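note to self: dont lose this again. the chain is below, predicted strucutre after it. 322 aa total, dont forget to put it in the shared folder this time
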Amino acid sequence: MGGGRGDRCQRASGSAVSVAGAQYLCRYAIRLRGTAPPGGLAARGSVRGLPASVSPDGRRPGRRLTRLRADGNGTRAAMRMGRIVLVAMGVIAVAGCGPQAARLDAADENNPLLRRARARRRMQDFDGAIALYNRALERYPRLARAHLEVGSLYATEKKDYVRAVYHLQRYLELRPDTQKRKLIQDWIRRAELALAAEIKTRSSGVPVELSRLREENRRLTQRVKALSARIEQLRRGAAVESSSGEREAVASEVKELPPPRPTPAYPEVKVYRVQRGDTLSSIAARFYGDRSKWRRIYEANRNVLDSPESLRVGQRLVVPVE
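---
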């Protein structure tokens, strides 16, 4: 086993093991076993820089090596040596492989903010955990593990499916080769279905309420018209004068008529996409010309902002128009 065996060791490892390293392992195995295969390294001198009569450890073969070749035990020693080398190369190959995403996730898990967030999550303090995850992402936007964990927290505990989908998709963008890709894609699909059902439930009540208001408006309009016609008849004297009791009944009926319900007025708003370096104060200065009015924007976006400082680049904010 010479240079050819070293090349095979190099190909089996799949890493940075060189021919010289493989030859070193072979020489170490020979030294450990105290022998060499017939016609092996010592016989053919395939170890570069050594003559055929010199063994890899720099000593000339002794009587014990000669006796082993003579009685046939050298063959068995060579087989044992080969097994040692194969095991060593297998260990190197295993140590040199592994999914890239798993190694990166393991590095992310050492982040102190992530460790604190997990501790809060174990204590059922989900709001505190989310705040720590978001703080970690503000400092390290490419911290993929934080996206995965806060996304699952939004989906399972907060039922905030919009944010859950965003963070899970962001994790897949940062870890495209993750072994959990199909599982996370299934989470995203379930969150999107839950979000669609939630939107449908919210919107289903709007037509019912609108129909009720229209019917109430129609009924009140008819009643107002009838009373107006009756009052006009009494005013002109076209009808026979009614008894005083009837007049009082008409007057009381007019007094009891409730005023029409005012149509709720929705404030006009604009949608602004957060840019790098934006704060609520700078956005308030842009729209209102007054940085102190940032709280109006914050109150209008409490459903998407955990705190006044939790802005994200690309986030869409509702800005009430004065």
